[in-house]
Amino acid sequence: MAEVSLKDVEKRYAMVPVLSGLNLDIADGEFTVLVGPSGCGKTTTLNMIAGLESITGGTLRIGARDVTTLPPKDRDIAMVFQSYALFPHMTVRDNIAFGMKIRKTPKAEIETQIRQVAQRLRIDDLLDRLPKALSGGQRQRVALGRALVRRPGVFLMDEPLSNLDAKMRIEARSFLTKMHQEVGTTTVYVTHDQAEAMTMGSKIVVMNGGKIQQAAAPLEVYNRPANQFVAGFIGSPAMNFLRLLYDGNALLDQACRLRIAVPECRRAALAGQQGKTVTLGVRPEHFRILQPGAIPGSDSIAFNVDVVQHLGHEILLDLSAGDHRCIARLPPSDRSKLGDDRLFSIDMDHVHYFNGDSGENLIDYAWQQ
Amino acid sequence: MAEVSLKDVEKRYAMVPVLSGLNLDIADGEFTVLVGPSGCGKTTTLNMIAGLESITGGTLRIGARDVTTLPPKDRDIAMVFQSYALFPHMTVRDNIAFGMKIRKTPKAEIETQIRQVAQRLRIDDLLDRLPKALSGGQRQRVALGRALVRRPGVFLMDEPLSNLDAKMRIEARSFLTKMHQEVGTTTVYVTHDQAEAMTMGSKIVVMNGGKIQQAAAPLEVYNRPANQFVAGFIGSPAMNFLRLLYDGNALLDQACRLRIAVPECRRAALAGQQGKTVTLGVRPEHFRILQPGAIPGSDSIAFNVDVVQHLGHEILLDLSAGDHRCIARLPPSDRSKLGDDRLFSIDMDHVHYFNGDSGENLIDYAWQQ
Amino acid sequence: MASSASRFDDGTFVGFARRHVFVTVFGVAVPLLVFACFIGYPIVYTIYLSFFEWNGMAPQKKFVGFANYAYLLHDKYFYIALVNNAKWLVVSLVFPVSLGFLIAYVMKARLVFAPSLLRTIVFFPVTMSLIAVGLMFLLILNPVFGAFDTLLRSVGLGFLVHEWFGDYRIALYTLAVISGWAFTGMPMIFYFAGLGDVPKETFDAARIEGAGHWRMIRSVALPQLRPVTAIIVMLTLFESLRAFDLIAVLTKGAPFGMTNVLGYLVYMESFWNSRFGYGAALSVVILVIAGSLAALLLGKVLKGAFDV
Amino acid sequence: MSDATLNASAMRRGSFASVLPKLAATLLMLVLAAVWLGPLLLIVMTSIKSNAEFLAGPFALPRSPTIQPYIDVWFGLGFGTLLRNSLIYATAGSALAVTLALVPAFALSRMNVPGRKWIFGLLLTGLMLPQQTVLIPLYDTLRTFHLLDTKIGLIIVHGVYGMPLQVLILRGFMTTIPPEIEKAAYVEGATDFQVFWKVILPLSVPGILVGYTLNFIAIWKEFVFGLVFLNSEENFPVTVGMLKLNSDRYLAVFNLPAAGLVISQLPIVILFILTYRQISGGNLSGAVKG
Amino acid sequence: ASGVKMARAAPAELRYFYRAPWPSSEVYANWLIDEWNKKNGDRVHVTGASVDGETYKTKQTIELSSSNPPDLFYSWEGGRGKEIVDNGFSADLTPYYEKYGWDKKLNPAGVTLSVYNGKKHFVPTEMCASVVWYRKDIYEKLGLKVPTTWDELMANAQKGKEAGLAAFMLANQKKWPSQFMWSAILVNKHGLDVYDGLINGTIPWTDPRAVDVTAMMQKLAQDGMFEPSFNSIDLGPAMVPWTQGHGLHWYQGSFNLGRFRGDQPQCCVVPMDFFPMPAFPGKKPVMSVFAEDTIMIHANSPNKDAAAEFLDWMVSDAAMSKKLEIDKPFPSNVNSDLSRLSEMEQRLGKAMAESGSFTFMHVDHATPPAISDKFLDGVQGVLAGAMSPEDAMKLTEDEAARVKKS
Ligand SMILES: Nc1ncnc2c1ncn2[C@@H]1O[C@H](COP(=O)(O)OP(=O)(O)OP(=O)(O)O)[C@@H](O)[C@H]1O
Ligand SMILES: Nc1ncnc2c1ncn2[C@@H]1O[C@H](COP(=O)(O)OP(=O)(O)OP(=O)(O)O)[C@@H](O)[C@H]1O
Ligand SMILES: [Mg+2]
Ligand SMILES: [Mg+2]
């Protein structure tokens, strides 16, 4: 068990910076999820923690030790790869025993450990198979077993579930969460998957372009995104953004077809934005349909329904109003049809306001709390 | 434009049957989605329609013609592959023109067609690039363009979106749907993705083990699954199943901790099951939390909360009651915590009853309608 | 109609040929025809000839049944050659194949500077004709003024100096090492390419598990390179069984036949001693050995690597 | 760059273990360079000495370099014709080998030819056959087709005997082309031939280059076929001409063989410089992949 | 130079197949053919093809039995020649010998060798003799006299050895050089008839006299009479110790004169001379004189007369003198003008011409290759100390028996 701390960590490939000034503290036993668009440097970060990539600047500490230049084997870490990276020529048993054999763990000890881990992962009857004779989910568990058995200080996982199909992914997600609850090893977890990011970690680190955008608890990131990037990245379907002009009281679009009054309590935060563009962020679930005949309020917009997507437990509507495009999430009982013109109200308690240029969230939640 | 009809179609690989007695009629212009677990034969079915795999038994008709033994080029079909399968050594233009050149379409004609399709797909400025210089979404559109340009009678698509990231996938989904609305070509679409299956097609064909389990409209499949397999396969998280004993009035579990009264109107359908095991199917969204202190009703169960997954717009609870495990979908406002014991009611109007052995849905919806 | 479907897909060659005329003609018929004329006929002829006694010139061949094979069983030279072939193969596997692998690994692991230069240098002799290689080493290993001996003496390793071609205990190894010198580049590039196909993650995983280079080679790289190894071993096997040019250039079997290998013996017996029947019998033996070892290799070690 | 940094800092911290492999590998490289480069340098050195100078000090650096050996051996053996012939044989022979191998490789890698295992195995026997075995029957075959002592005859022999290895290499390479690409072509209406010609062939170019180069080298090195199937000097390839350098009488003058050797190797050096990236890069991967 | 020529049919095509062991041989052959074609090309046109000596045999085997064989071809004499004659590839040249009077101008030893079953089958174009070469300067330095008996030779050898020299150069890597000494010793010690008996198979190789000579060779090796590493040095490289003065004697064929001359037009690079293998007590010494280049006419050639005409051109005084000028000695035409050679070379030439018709070939020429091969292996093995003389001769005899049987 160990905490991980990155201080001003940098990575350059042939002088091209890929990561710059990364600062991140991961507490002992914490489950941290790294998310971000492809190419933002998640894998690179993980590889640097693992020691697979050299660190070109800054310091990396694991536990009490500065491990910046140590080779992987001296860092007390274990890693699970997206492709599992099982040794294809070794049985499950040998795969799991590999690290222990290298460390010259006594035979009997190895056997005990393997049995324990295999039982916990429910792979005890697969021990003599080769990886190619396993299903995706089983492989994933073997990879996990190989990492678990050494009781490392830190677990690193790079999209370990992305090769599984939807069903297995949900299962494995619960499984990993429980596992972490039991063993409590510090874990850094990279994923592309919204649901994984939201549900698995106690902290989400959102990265973009080699920089950390926000690092906070999942609901915090969901409800109080630091900036427009984070807001758009977390949540599926993504948050809807409306670029509007702030006139001191309300947000207007250029064609003047839209006018959304800003609640009193938010005006202070938006004070500096008068006459400038503000991006209004509305999550799909914060649209509500007004019954036909209802009187349009200060928070209502008339949308045209472009596409209706029945998902069974919910309905997604692709909406448009002039140049603005939105997606709304509605209960399955909704009866909207393609081509309908409907009036929607926005739940103004849950909208977000972003600086039209920098994308910064204009509300300072920290102060608000 | 053409309808597709499979009659008793079979496929054996070296005498091992992979598909048996497939019967499927796809109307002209219909958008049919093929779903099913990995290895159930979706790709094989598509390949047989395309002529890429020989048909070992039965008849395949496209339009008015029997094409069972015709080579692909004589079938008037186009196909989009999961990997796009663009010709890496040809520019986008040549990729799109490939089929027409082979058919010796006049040069000018080819040029016009390409321009039209490229404009529609918004790839007109990419025409001279090689595939490797395109993003995933662009490649996907080029593959689509190659298929569209020939105005084939039938479109076959094998998981065309599964290589895109979540954001692009949602975009492409809408795009494909609109495209189909415009050109109206008969389409057979294979996917793993729940949302695609539910939203894109006018018909879902659920396959398992080389057999068709159900072929019907999406909401029909969602709300009236033909059997337990279909019920469990469609919907995410999956439908919860409780194996219970039917005593003529209610469903009981063996430990007698659970007793769920069967509504009067369903008793006729369950008549033959008295004393046998019935599987009760409950979708996650059909659990409702009873406020603490509420009186347990005939449709309520006490669950222990194992895992809480906050997804932002909703909450998923992993629940357990004795040996029964369920997942419930709740609004984000819910405050349940790990370890809580809570009382849930089941929306009995929306539950399903399956034969405990065969998995057949015990309610005959056709009759009911 | 269903019957017509199965008629076409009956899995027979005729069914296939009817649907794929181009492939059948140019992918099967033409190559097989060419093969039959230029390779098949010689093989059949060789087998035929092995039952005759013939000096290569006489218009008549004398049928002797299995006499050539019977003689072969007592031919001391045959056994010398057979054993030498085995030694040659072992040296080839130990020296060029292992070293080729090692160089490839070291380059892939970026452990050396200027890996491409090293690759070029080591690959270059592969392009040299064995005559050239032979001539070169005749000069270098010459016992009178050879650079190698001079070098050994000048660095104080004079005790290592041997009659590289003259000492019957080591001459064969000298030859095998020379052939290895010329051959190392081949396994090297095959392994280099093969290493590129081994998933990088398995190396990363092994590193994290604490594996050093030795362990990495033994437990991660080599097992995953088995198909490459099998191809290389197979090509090495074929090469070593066929080898005769280097021996023809360098020793002609000297000293006193101790450097004969099967390939050279075939040449000797046929063209030098004018016993073409016997030479043919030796060729058949080579074919049988090569064929069965290859089959063993493909069937056991390399299961699936050539799945066609 | 990054590795060097890592290396430097590791050394700074005295973590000897992580530098050791690199040191060892670098040492190994130096030794290897010497072992592989030494003989070649020695030959070049010998080739620019006079015979007297060589006899005086075979291992010494040339004191008065001369190109006389090159001139002697060039005109003595007629290297102009020899090189031209070799170029013809190697160029055309490997072209033929590749051409012959392309469709079979396509058939064996992409098509479900019944009995393809046997066909492949049969072709492989071409790799096992000792060359010296086939001389007499092959001579018959060539005589039958009136191809003895013709360039075209030798080209055919080289082509056919190059084919098996080409099939092996190209087949391996073609199996790495994703099947979907080929399927797409079929669906687009292509026939077998069009799939082969418009899709598989262009995509196999790297594999073809590798195979061609290896074959070129093999033909350039070969001498037995050339020796036996040719009679006229104007048809001899370099290696057959070079055989004279191997006669023990020629070896009385060491600089001549050395010079001949250098000359005979020059074209291949040039080819090698042009293509070694292909053959030593990852492009062989297809050839060796299961 | 006749006036108006009649229109004629296409000229007869002659294919001439030869060996070109030296760069100069090639030049000479080209001259020979060009000259002929200049004069007779419109009547009989000759094309030549050459390969090197060792591989020549492979080529020859295939070519001779082909349907389109060469009209004239190089052949070895002795065992290999017999094979060719026995298989009916070689035309009987006796009539041509008579027609052109070749007997009179050709070296008698060469003419004798051309006789198979009473008929002459080839024309020698180059002759050789095997003699003991010695370093004149070292002889002077050590105060040695040219020996006339084996014992004197041994005494000189002993002195040379004591002076730190190799008493005899052997350069036996390619196996055949050692048998030069072997056969010379055998002939000189036990008589030509014994040697002929061994060659013809009337005396087994295991005969004590053959074993005795082998043992003598073994003794020489054991006594350190040969240069170090003698079994792994080839003739060419052996020139280095020879020129550097590390060897005293070298029993070798005169075809090495080219080697001894180096880049000079005349022999030799170092001061050296020769003497015939000296006599053993009670025996008359015999010098080995043999044909180095011999030309046959193919029995199936449609142009035998024309081929013979070309042969006559080859051995003509003019052609032979040119051969001396361009190529190495010695011409088979005894009338050739040797004056452009050094005194020593001229002396050797005279000695060859006068050696008479009864000399001998070394084992590798005299016997079929299969036998000589084993014989050579045996001797090399004995010299290396890896085989006993008895075993070596047994090896040879076994092979001889096998050859005889088939
Ligand atoms: N060896 C390398 N040389 C140069 N640039 C590299 C190298 N490896 C990665 N990069 C660059 O570094 C950046 C970050 O890569 P990284 O693999 O960490 O992204 P990621 O966040 O893991 O992306 P993904 O979600 O696609 O896995 C990318 O822009 C990539 O192009
Ligand atoms: N060439 C083949 N030989 C033998 N069996 C095959 C072959 N191709 C496919 N199969 C088998 O046929 C079954 C159906 O395969 P298919 O590829 O159609 O599945 P799928 O539904 O497309 O699966 P996925 O969702 O993983 O793509 C599988 O069990 C597979 O193992
Ligand atoms: Mg990554
Ligand atoms: Mg599939």
Automatic annotation (TrEMBL), chains A, B:
Main localization (coarse): membrane
Per the record, its GO cellular-component terms are: ATP-binding cassette (ABC) transporter complex, substrate-binding subunit-containing
Q: Where in the cell is it found?
A: Cell inner membrane
Q: How does it sit in the membrane?
A: Peripheral membrane protein
Entry keywords, A to Z: ATP-binding, Cell membrane, Membrane, Nucleotide-binding, Translocase, Transport
Q: Would the keyword Transcription turn up in this protein's UniProt record?
A: no
Q: Name one GO molecular function term.
A: ATP hydrolysis activity
Residue ranges occupied by any ABC transporter domain in the UniProt entry: 4-234
| SUPFAM superfamilies referenced in this protein's UniProt entry, alphabetically | MOP-like, P-loop containing nucleoside triphosphate hydrolases
Name the GO terms of the biological process aspect: carbohydrate transport
Q: Which InterPro entries match?
A: AAA+_ATPase, ABC_transporter-like_ATP-bd, ABC_transporter-like_CS, ABC_transpr_MalK-like, ABC_transpr_MalK/UgpC-like, Mo/tungstate-bd_C_term_dom, NA-bd_OB-fold, OB_MalK-like
Pfam families, per the entry: ABC_tran, OB_MalK
Q: Which SMART domains match?
A: AAA (SM00382)
Instruction: Please indicate which superkingdom the organism of origin belongs to.
Output: Bacteria
**What protein family does this chain belong to?**
Belongs to the ABC transporter superfamily.
Q: What is this protein called?
A: ABC transporter-like protein
TrEMBL record, chain C:
UniProt entry tagged with the keyword Transport: yes
Task: Please give the Pfam families that the UniProt record associates with this protein.
Answer: BPD_transp_1
Task: Please provide, in alphabetical order, the Gene Ontology terms of the cellular component aspect for this entry.
Answer: plasma membrane
User: What are the record keywords, sorted?
Assistant: Cell membrane, Membrane, Transmembrane, Transmembrane helix, Transport
> Which biological processes are named by the entry's GO terms?
transmembrane transport
Among CDD domains, the record links this protein to:
TM_PBP2
Bilayer topology? Multi-pass membrane protein
Domain ABC transmembrane type-1 stretches: 82-297
Its subcellular locations are:
Cell membrane
* InterPro entries tied to this protein: MetI-like, MetI-like_sf
The regions listed as transmembrane in this protein's record are 21-48, 86-105, 117-141, 170-195, 278-298
Q: Does the keyword Cytoplasm apply?
A: no
Family assignment from sequence similarity: Belongs to the binding-protein-dependent transport system permease family.
**The name this protein goes by in its record:** Binding-protein-dependent transporters inner membrane component
Automatic annotation (TrEMBL), chain D:
Instruction: Tell me where it resides.
Output: Cell membrane
Q: What is this protein called?
A: Maltose/maltodextrin transport system permease protein MalG
Report the SUPFAM superfamilies cross-referenced here: MetI-like (SSF161098)
Q: Indicate the family of this protein.
A: Belongs to the binding-protein-dependent transport system permease family. MalFG subfamily.
What does this protein do, in the record's words?
A: Part of the ABC transporter complex MalEFGK involved in maltose/maltodextrin import. Probably responsible for the translocation of the substrate across the membrane.
Which is an annotated Pfam family here? BPD_transp_1
Membrane spanning stretches: 20-45, 87-107, 119-139, 151-174, 195-220, 250-274
**Can you list the GO cellular component terms from the UniProt entry?**
plasma membrane
For biological process, the GO terms are:
transmembrane transport
What keywords sit in the KW lines?
Cell membrane, Membrane, Sugar transport, Transmembrane, Transmembrane helix, Transport
Give the ABC transmembrane type-1 domain ranges: 83-275
**Database matches in PANTHER family:** MALTOSE TRANSPORT SYSTEM PERMEASE-RELATED, MALTOSE_MALTODEXTRIN TRANSPORT SYSTEM PERMEASE PROTEIN MALG
Q: Could you tell me the membrane topology recorded for this protein?
A: Multi-pass membrane protein
